[in-house]
């Protein structure tokens, strides 16, 4: 029995809907780990794990409920999106393999497309078209649900599974990938153009590897959010990214208001960042809980 993590992104911040989705996970035999919601983005991220016998049905049921509960015609939020259940990643854990995760993602994509009538785009390691490995090829700040409605019949936007018809549930991106860290840094300025200068440096690849970034004006809180996905946290430790942004912001006369992790992150990512900060070689072998779990696992 192999375990997989999934981190579905839903286009809602409605607490009642999130509670329903949590119930689907637990009643289906999965383990709910975490959820993070944001009203400005009108988006929620749920983290769950399940074994290979249950993961497909649980995620299918989440997609079905999202279709029933979330209307993309009414959705408004800062974060780019194309569907009610917008992004659905499958992450292999432990002895699970990427090939198994790819197989699961395709089973899931086929069922969602054929049974729910939702257009599905395979991304990441599951991409059937090389350009679609990157989410931004289909969905970005300039191309979202509204634009996809107009262009879905074009060859570039032909779905991998399901119909080339966009209903009120929108479309979905499904794929296998490795762990990533979603990390936001909030800078105390409402000048998004200034923060975008930092974004461009991060995205250039000159300073960090495997980091994607966007800037969002969070008007309700009076700051600009620099939102990142860190695909290679070993190449680009969080503390290095924070220090870089802090230095760039201070150079413009701004300070960091706060930063936040969205969802969960591996313990070795914390150990790596701490090790960089205190100039020590720290890894999972230094983490007490790792040792305890390993000890019990070997009994």
Automatic annotation (TrEMBL):
GO terms for biological process: L-histidine catabolic process to glutamate and formamide; L-histidine catabolic process to glutamate and formate. Keywords: Cytoplasm, Folate-binding, Histidine metabolism, Transferase. The keyword Transferase applies. Pathway: Amino-acid degradation; L-histidine degradation into L-glutamate; L-glutamate from N-formimidoyl-L-glutamate (transferase route): step 1/1. Residues 2-178 form the Formiminotransferase N-terminal subdomain domain. It is found in: Cytoplasm. Transmembrane segments: none annotated. The keyword Cell membrane does not apply. Residues 179-291 form the Formiminotransferase C-terminal subdomain domain. It comes from the Archaea. GO terms for molecular function: folic acid binding; glutamate formimidoyltransferase activity. This is glutamate formimidoyltransferase.
């Amino acid at each position: 029995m192999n375990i997989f993590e999934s981190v579905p992104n839903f286009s809602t911040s409605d607490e009642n809907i999130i509670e329903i989705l949590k119930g689907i996970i637990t009643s289906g035999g999965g383990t709910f780990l975490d959820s993070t919601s944001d009203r400005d983005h009108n988006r929620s991220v749920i983290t769950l794990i399940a074994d290979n016998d249950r993961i497909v049905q649980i995620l299918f049921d989440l997609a079905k409920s999202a279709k029933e509960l979330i209307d993309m015609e009414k959705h408004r939020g800062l974060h780019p999106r194309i569907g009610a259940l917008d992004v659905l990643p499958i992450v292999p854990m432990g002895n699970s393999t990427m090939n198994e995760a790819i197989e699961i993602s395709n089973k899931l994509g086929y069922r969602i497309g054929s049974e729910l009538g939702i257009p599905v785009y395979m991304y990441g390691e599951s991409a059937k078209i090389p350009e679609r490995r990157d989410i931004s090829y289909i969905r970005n700040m300039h191309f979202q649900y509204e634009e996809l409605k107009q262009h879905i019949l074009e060859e570039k936007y032909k779905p991998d599974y399901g119909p080339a018809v966009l209903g009120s549930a929108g479309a979905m991106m499904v794929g296998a990938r490795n762990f990533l860290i979603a990390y936001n840094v909030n800078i105390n300025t409402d000048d998004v153009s200034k923060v975008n200068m930092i974004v461009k440096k991060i995205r250039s690849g000159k300073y960090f590897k495997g980091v994607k970034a966007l800037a969002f004006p969070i008007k309700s809180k009076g700051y600009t959010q620099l939102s990142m996905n860190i695909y290679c946290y070993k190449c680009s430790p969080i503390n290095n990214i924070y220090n870089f942004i802090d230095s760039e912001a201070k150079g413009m006369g701004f300070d960091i208001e706060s930063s936040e992790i969205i969802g969960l992150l591996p313990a070795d990512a914390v150990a790596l960042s701490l090790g960089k900060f205190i100039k020590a070689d720290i890894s999972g072998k230094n983490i007490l809980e790792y040792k305890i779990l390993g000890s019990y696992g070997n009994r």
